[in-house]
# Entry
Amino acid sequence: MTTDTQAAAPELGKARTRKEDARLLTGQTNWTDNIVLPGMLHMCFVRSPFAHARITSVDVSAARSMPGVIAAFSGADFADEQASLPCGWPVTEDIVMPPHPPMATEEVRYVGEAVAVVIARDRYTAADAIAAVDVDYEPLPPVLDMRAALEEGSPKVHEAGNKCYVWPFVQGDIDAAFRDAPVVLERTYRQQRLIPCAMEPRAVIASYVAGEVTLWSATQIPHVLRFALGAFFGIPEQNIRVIAPDVGGGFGSKLQVTAEEVLAVLVARKLGRPVKWTESRSEGNLTVHHGRDQWQKIRIAADRDGRLRGLDVDLLADMGAYLMLVTPGVPLLGAFMYPAIYKMDAYSFKCTGVFTTKMPTDAYRGAGRPEATFAIERIMDELAAELGMDPLEVRERNWIKHEEFPYTSISTLVYDSGNYEAATARARELFRYDELRAEQKSRREAGDPVQLGIGISTFTEMCGLAPSRVVGSLRYGVGGWESATVRVLPTGKVEVVTGSSAHGQGHETAWSQIAADKLGVPFEDVRVLHGDTQVSAKGMDTYGSRSLTVGGIALSGACDKVIAKAKRVAAHLMEASENDIEFTAGRLHVRGDPEQGVSLQEIALATFTAHNFPDGVEPSLDSDATYDPENFSFPHGTHLCATEVDTETGRVTIRSYVAVDDVGKVVNPLIVEGQVHGGIAQGIAQALYEEAVYDDDGNLLTTTLADYLVPSAPDLPHLTTDRTETPATTNPLGVKGVGEAGTIASTPAVVNAIVDALRPMGIDDVPMPCTPERVWRAIQSARDNGAGQNGGGQ
# Structure
């Protein structure tokens, strides 16, 4: 047995390598696509080649007659039972929420929408047989530009029109803030459409036996998926088991109730055989929900000394063809973050949701907050340029000082803690800010064709999606709580059951560290169970950087309950008052006599045998806890980026990148480092590489990784990262979220650096992604207009 000395070693803050990595990295794991069930069949979908069309007929007879094909169905075959895919966030009372059938029956509204399904003995036969399905369409005009979609006379995506909702939010006297302001700036920024590219494609297997459904899915939300299947598709929830095996990434793309999951269940029920579907990468790019896709018109009012007066945001958000699980709410998560870390007198926000004939959008890493941070950090640079001030100076003049926390922002959020000064000072030091500014000045004076740009992003975010009452006030369809169970086994080993469902975050490691510290047991003695609704009966799953700040706190509470139960048993065994029992490093002892006592392992065995047990006490240490936080979590940080821009070719090279984040107390610095690195990579990808592109007919042109440019390791710079630590005051562990911070902060840092390099040429924006061609065209346009000097000189 591990000694008590070893058990008492602190775990929180220790850089543990991840428990789960051994099986993940060696392939000894169980991805959904690895699973083979007896008699299993394979599904493949016929998908619309039109962005908008009426379905005039679907003939599956030829496919049905092919060798190896078991069945084929059109959408009409499931019309009476497939219901509508759920949207859980109807953000306004008058929101337009069109029916969203898993398989189209009368009309298709984006390229890739399913119109028929073929089921065969193997996936290759199914894939071949879909070519035999004959579908006749009557093409309709596509609707591709969300601005044009709102114009009079635009073709309609749905009978009710193209406007989904309008959501306004105003705090303070916005007219007074802009009236007679010495400086008023207006800019329009484009958040391009992005495609989440998780390492593991989506996959699903459904089994239907004697009225009971078992669904294996590469999902982030097994509990929400189970609820949705029970609530919307006529299956008793108690008869549904959803299992998320090891899931290879999600970034929001697996935060969904998908057509393929629902149809797998319906097909398995109809045929009485288990069925599997695994997407190809091109199929995934077409049909996994997309991210971002917004037009942001932003106005800012300020005094000549740089003090902010007011901020006004007018947002157009592309919903795509339908509303998926949280589609309408994603832009509203950003609504509260446009003011960011800054103080101002008034704030106005309006979001108009618009339908187009494209793949629906939904949550993608950051979900609304990267878009907001981009806009405010871009226009803060514009304000600095207008005033002739250093961009860091403008920010510091307006940000909330550390002694002002807790601080209620103009958007009504209560920031519990933070220290923007400390994070920025550390980032500035690591970046060698003053030296780089001096080098930039000398390059400009010399007319160097390769210009140096310095980009800044000082950010905060609201994450840990909860609390239930707050999200409920925003008409969010479910709660924000999380659940955990701690089971102390007779041998003293510990099982932790969490409602959070990991897809790469390292829950098994971090949760083991929390339980080991709280219970005083060895890290190796803790096992974490998750992702199976029959094992983990309650949970709200994983998204919005909520796992640690909500699920981890639930675990902490369950551990506290275990200790409270153990104290009753220890008091009985030591013939002492329960009030005199203390718990220290895995041992229970009488106050003032720490050398005498019993270990938690001894209490576990005594509870198991129950031979000498206190009257009226149940023989169990196992404990449950459900935690619903009182507030969001507010990590923050400062990211600085230096780019070299070749003014002759448009090529952008990131020369250095420094990120100093404050995520409160850190459970495992290795995991934090990994999350920050991965997030920055995705933010850089939006700035420089990624964009979902449609042609004029609504065909997605970026269906493969040859067309949709996801950066690999050689495309990314060396990252210098560090942390400051301002513990959260709203949870007992003092932790804040980290999963999305890097993505939120990095995109504006990179684009600000590019624009900073080109500003002497009269350039104040380059649309994302800032490809060499777009940068070069911006330079040529500036030269044609006679702005600045050739070669980047002043």
Summary: The longest strand covers residues 308-320.
